[in-house]
Write a structure and sequence with these properties.
Elements lengths: L2 H15 L3 H5 L4 E6 L2 E7 L13 H17 L8 E9 L9 E11 L3 E9 L5 E10 L11 E2 L6 E3 L6
Antiparallel strand pairs: 1-2, 2-4, 3-6, 4-5, 5-6, 7-8
C-alpha cells in the first residue's frame, strides 16, 4: 500500500479512536484512494444519516465536508490537520437514501504556511454531483507536529519523517 494511503488511513483511525463526532456520524466511511492532495471516499448511507423525508440529511454532508477537508490536508503529510475557519456546503440534488453509496472526493486546492483550502465534491453511484463544499483550515501550529511526514510526489514513499507501522 502506498505511503500516502497508509498515512491518511492512520489519521482517519485517530479520528475514529476518539469516539467523537466522526465515529458517531459516519463510522462506515471508507477511504478508497489517497494521493498527495486528493482523497476519495465512499459511505454506505445508514438510516441514521437521513432526514425526516428519507434522504441524506444536509448536516451529514456539511460534516463530511469538514472531515474530508481534514483528510485532504492529511494526505499531504499533516498528522494534526488544524482547525476549521470556514466550512460551506451547497446541495445540488438529493444525495441518496438508506442503502445507497455516497462518494466523496476531497481536493487540497492550496496549502500555505497558515491556511489550507479544500474543495469536496459528493456524487451518487451514477456519478451525478449531489453536493459540493469548501473547507478552510488554520494549520499554523499543526504544520510542525512531529508526526508529520513528506511524501514523494506520487505518494508512494515517505521522503521526510518517520513511517509508523500500525
Amino acid at each position: 500500500m502506498a505511503a500516502c494511503m497508509k498515512f491518511t488511513q492512520r489519521v482517519w483511525k485517530s479520528f475514529m479512536d476518539t469516539k467523537g463526532h466522526d465515529a458517531q456520524c459516519f463510522p462506515h466511511l471508507q477511504i478508497l484512494r489517497a494521493k498527495p492532495g486528493v482523497v476519495e471516499t465512499a459511505l454506505k448511507i445508514q438510516p441514521s444519516n437521513l432526514n425526516r423525508v428519507g434522504t441524506v440529511h444536509g448536516g451529514l454532508l456539511l460534516s463530511l465536508t469538514d472531515t474530508l477537508g481534514s483528510l485532504a490536508v492529511a494526505s499531504r503529510g499533516h498528522y494534526m490537520t488544524g482547525v476549521s475557519t470556514d466550512v460551506c456546503t451547497s446541495f445540488v440534488r438529493p444525495a441518496g437514501k438508506a442503502g445507497d453509496t455516497l462518494f466523496g472526493k476531497a481536493t487540497l486546492t492550496s496549502l500555505g504556511r497558515h491556511l489550507a483550502y479544500t474543495r469536496i465534491d459528493f456524487s451518487n453511484a451514477n456519478g451525478e454531483l449531489v453536493a459540493y463544499g469548501t473547507h478552510t483550515k488554520y494549520i499554523g501550529k499543526s504544520a510542525t507536529d512531529p508526526n508529520n511526514v513528506k511524501f514523494s510526489d506520487d505518494g508512494e514513499t515517505i521522503i521526510e519523517g518517520e513511517s509508523v507501522n500500525d
